[in-house]
């Protein structure tokens, strides 16, 4: 399906042509279209061009109107104020443009970009042998939504889940397993809940021995050396911890309704063999220097207490490697081997300084070039009702599985009360879609860099800016389409549109531009805001414009067409955010 230009872009081009015709010797100015209360669009760029050309703005605006080729596109163009143009698009143009979008069932007339790149997106980074908690929620949800948005715009994406699967704690865990064989069942014999239960038991037991037995602590430290040296027995047991953890990870991601590919789980251990070379290259190039035995990178603009420079530590004085070496090695791999043109990291905002230093180091080393962008999508904290980081009543970190289960249970109460004709199995299915959607939307409707309060009562409400409100809008349309029977949605460009129909139609037409803008800014909350406004405009349309009892068959078909296109747009937009749209609620 060919791309369907938006009405805004078509009007913009007509204005640019008219400006050029009115002032052929001057470079045309951007008309600077924006939404207007007085008309569909307002053009403001004429003022700047008139000033540059020493022309009277209002006279120039009048000349532009005379040169404007309107055809069936424009219903009215009015000169206002010192030289603004208020522009009203015709009803026919709105309906015909929407009909072209409707004909493209897969993409709604939104073409992918002509020159896509390859984005490696680093998100959803749990730790091996540790339970996922509420702190892991945002990276997974935001990363999954951004990936969906990027792919819709045509970008090729490669996921990377940089799990914590390496480090000193594995010496403790592996040594305990050697001395207590059989404590972990083979991964294929357990489900997610059992896997985490086993891992928790082993972790707590090994930690207790590690803290109380100096001899065991020494054996655990030697086991770390064996792990780093690639000892076969040690690696086999380490792999058992990784496999068992993955079973648990997948069970949580499944509850989150997220697809996580095994080949995209590439943890810290995957870059272990690259880190010595990374350090060597940085030292030989002079990007990193030795300081008190450690290999570090300094930055003039980054200073700490007493105005002392804060270094990025690549290699410790004892020869060990830290997070910086791993992250820099990952950049080398992603740029040189995966041929990434964009690197996107969805990590806690508190790691912003770390990634600022890592990116600058990679640029100095030549691994990040002008052809490769790197962006840290820092996100804020999930807060409780008290405005503090979300904890249980006992002050412990909230387990992610418990949080998701509670959201589903709360949603089941809402669905059961609203949908009287559903079976219990259908209620539970819808509850998962509504509950998980509610958690995701609450996160995604907030600017990623901001903190937000976790309030399940508000999240599963049918009123206000919630995913349930959007899902109910979609389900309501499906109900209308079912009641229409044999009457099919059909566009009728010859009909006049009521104000509520025009408002809904113009907003539907802006879907593609909104998604592209939000994706370029890595701003899923802008897609969420668009969808909420769409559902709100649908409610106003539904209240003011009878659908099945409209005046005449043509108007019934046209309003069914507007409803169906709204449903398709809601479905597509919610899918980009990783949220389901149930047919019945």
UniProtKB/TrEMBL annotation:
Pfam families given in the database record: Arg_tRNA_synt_N, DALR_1, tRNA-synt_1d
This protein's UniProt keywords: Aminoacyl-tRNA synthetase, ATP-binding, Cytoplasm, Ligase, Nucleotide-binding, Protein biosynthesis
Domain Arginyl tRNA synthetase N-terminal: 9-89
Matching SUPFAM superfamilies: Anticodon-binding domain of a subclass of class I aminoacyl-tRNA synthetases (SSF47323), Arginyl-tRNA synthetase (ArgRS), N-terminal 'additional' domain (SSF55190), Nucleotidylyl transferase (SSF52374)
EC number: 6.1.1.19
InterPro entries assigned to the protein according to its UniProt record, in alphabetical order: aa-tRNA-synth_I_CS (IPR001412), Arg-tRNA-ligase (IPR001278), Arg-tRNA-synth_N (IPR005148), Arg-tRNA-synth_N_sf (IPR036695), ArgRS_core (IPR035684), DALR_anticod-bd (IPR008909), Rossmann-like_a/b/a_fold (IPR014729), tRNAsynth_Ia_anticodon-bd (IPR009080)
GO molecular function: arginine-tRNA ligase activity; ATP binding
Gene3D superfamilies: Arginyl tRNA synthetase N-terminal domain, HUPs, Isoleucyl-tRNA Synthetase, Domain 1
Motif ('HIGH' region) on chain: 126-136
GO annotation, biological process: arginyl-tRNA aminoacylation
Binding partners and assembly: Monomer.
PANTHER family membership: ARGININE--TRNA LIGASE, CYTOPLASMIC (PTHR11956:SF5), ARGINYL-TRNA SYNTHETASE (PTHR11956)
Protein name: Arginine--tRNA ligase
């Amino acid at each position: 399906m060919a791309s369907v230009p938006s009405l805004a872009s078509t009007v913009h081009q007509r204005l640019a042509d008219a400006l050029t015709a009115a002032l052929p010797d001057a470079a045309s100015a951007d008309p600077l279209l924006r939404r207007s209360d007085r008309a569909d669009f307002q053009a403001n760029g004429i003022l700047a061009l008139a000033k540059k050309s020493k022309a009277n703005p209002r006279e120039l605006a009048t000349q532009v109107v005379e040169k404007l080729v309107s055809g069936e596109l424009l219903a009215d163009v009015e000169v206002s104020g010192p030289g603004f143009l208020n522009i009203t698009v015709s009803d026919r143009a709105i309906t015909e443009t929407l009909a072209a979008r409707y004909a493209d069932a897969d993409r709604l007339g939104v073409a992918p970009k002509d020159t896509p790149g390859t984005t490696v997106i680093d998100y959803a980074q749990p730790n091996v042998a540790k339970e996922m908690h509420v702190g892991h929620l945002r990276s997974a949800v935001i990363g999954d939504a951004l990936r969906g948005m990027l792919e819709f715009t045509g970008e090729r994406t490669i996921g990377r889940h940089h799990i914590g699967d390496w480090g000193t704690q594995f010496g403790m865990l592996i040594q305990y397993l050697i001395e207590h064989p059989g404590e972990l069942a083979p991964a294929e014999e357990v489900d997610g809940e059992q896997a985490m239960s086993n891992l928790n038991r082993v972790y707590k037991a090994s930690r207790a021995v590690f803290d109380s037995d100096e001899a065991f602590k020494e054996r655990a430290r030697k086991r770390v050396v064996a792990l780093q040296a690639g000892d076969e027995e040690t690696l086999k047991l380490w792999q058992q911890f990784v496999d068992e953890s993955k079973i648990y990870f997948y069970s949580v991601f499944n509850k989150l309704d997220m697809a996580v590919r095994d080949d995209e789980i590439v943890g810290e251990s995957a870059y272990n063999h690259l880190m010595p070379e990374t350090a060597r290259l940085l030292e030989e190039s002079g990007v990193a220097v030795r300081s008190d035995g450690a290999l570090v990178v300094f930055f003039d603009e980054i200073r700490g207490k007493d105005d002392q420079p804060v270094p990025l530590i690549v290699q410790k004085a004892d020869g060990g490697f830290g997070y910086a070496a791993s992250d820099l090695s990952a950049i080398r791999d992603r740029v040189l081997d995966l041929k990434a043109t964009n690197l996107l990291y969805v990590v806690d905002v508190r790691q912003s300084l770390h990634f600022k230093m890592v990116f600058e180091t990679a640029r100095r080393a030549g691994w990040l070039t002008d052809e490769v962008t790197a962006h840290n999508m820092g996100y804020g904290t999930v807060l409780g009702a008290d405005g503090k980081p979300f904890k249980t009543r006992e002050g412990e970190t909230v387990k992610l599985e418990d949080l998701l289960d509670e959201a589903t249970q709360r949603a089941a109460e809402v669905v059961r009360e609203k949908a009287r004709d559903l079976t219990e199995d259908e209620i539970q299915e819808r509850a998962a879609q509504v509950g998980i959607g509610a958690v995701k939307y609450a996160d995604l409707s907030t600017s990623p860099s901001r903190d937000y309060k976790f309030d399940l009562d508000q999240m599963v409400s049918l009123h206000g800016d919630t995913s349930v409100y959007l899902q109910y809008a979609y389900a309501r349309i499906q109900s209308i389409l079912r009641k229409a029977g044999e009457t099919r949605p059909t566009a009728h460009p010859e009909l006049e549109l009521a104000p509520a129909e025009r408002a809904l139609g113009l907003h539907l037409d802006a879907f593609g531009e909104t998604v592209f803008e939000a994706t370029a800014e890595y701003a899923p909350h802008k897609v969420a805001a668009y969808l909420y406004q769409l559902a709100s405009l649908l409610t106003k349309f539904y209240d003011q414009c009878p659908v099945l009892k409209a005046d005449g068959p043509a108007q019934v078909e046209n309003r069914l067409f507007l409803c169906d296109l709204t449903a398709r747009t809601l479905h597509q937009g919610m899918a980009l955010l990783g949220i389901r749209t149930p047919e019945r609620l």
